[in-house]
Write a structure and sequence with these properties.
By secondary structure, the chain is of the alpha/beta class. The protein has helices at 13-22, 38-48, 56-61; strands at residues 4-9, 28-34, 52-53, 67-70.
């Protein structure tokens, strides 16, 4: 089964709750995150080992991301 690649738009406490749950899911992979605050996105990337921090416009245009969770 292929993993679904997910982007997270919004790096806040709600996002962290989602990420805590998603880490225990085998068919989903968080591949990128974005936020208006670059420092929040970088902190989330480091804390949850997310491969990429992207701008919002780049994330929504990236064809390698299957779904985006807007929080």
């Amino acid at each position: 089964m292929n993993k679904q690649k997910i982007g997270i738009d919004g790096c806040n406490i709600t996002s962290e709750i989602y990420l805590e749950i998603i880490q225990h899911t085998t068919n989903v992979e968080i591949v990128a995150c974005t936020d208006d605050s670059l420092s929040k996105a970088i902190k989330m990337k480091e804390k949850y080992n997310i491969p990429f921090v992207m701008t919002r416009s780049k994330m929504y245009k990236d064809h390698n991301i299957d779904y985006i969770i807007k929080l």
